[in-house]
Automatic annotation (TrEMBL):
Record GO terms (molecular function): DNA binding
GO biological process: regulation of DNA-templated transcription
Pfam families: TacA1
Region (Disordered): 57-80
Native organism taxonomy: Bacteria, Pseudomonadati, Pseudomonadota, Alphaproteobacteria, Hyphomicrobiales
PANTHER family xref list: COPG FAMILY HELIX-TURN-HELIX PROTEIN-RELATED-RELATED (PTHR35401), CYTOPLASMIC PROTEIN (PTHR35401:SF1)
The protein's name: DUF1778 domain-containing protein
UniProt xrefs under InterPro entries: Ribbon_hlx_hlx (IPR010985), TacA_1-like (IPR014795)
Alphabetical keyword list: DNA-binding, Repressor, Toxin-antitoxin system, Transcription, Transcription regulation
Listed Gene3D superfamilies: Single helix bin (1.20.5.780)
Family per similarity comment: Belongs to the TacA antitoxin family.
Length: 80
């Protein structure tokens, strides 16, 4: 990877503190960041009233509008 020398030095110092090579440090850091990003997209926590409101909304979805009703009534192209 091409990175600025100051950034490379910072990474090298952090890796050395952990007893890792630059590559090991970069791979582990990228892996952990990737996990965080994916969890942010899939996992969320709600407390008390917020959870109750969320669960209630899931239990009572809105009635389908005309566009959804029309879409669901169409015959799929593979069945035509």
């Amino acid at each position: 990877m091409r990175i600025e020398s100051g950034t490379q030095q910072l990474i090298d110092e952090a890796a050395a503190v952990l007893g890792k090579t630059r590559t090991e440090f970069m791979v582990e850091s990228a892996r952990l960041h990737a996990i965080d990003i994916l969890l942010d997209q899939r996992l969320f926590a709600l407390g008390g009233e917020s959870y109750d409101a969320f669960a209630d909304a899931l239990d009572r979805p809105p009635t389908p509008g005309p566009k959804l009703t029309s879409l669901m009534a169409r015959k799929p192209s593979w069945q035509k």
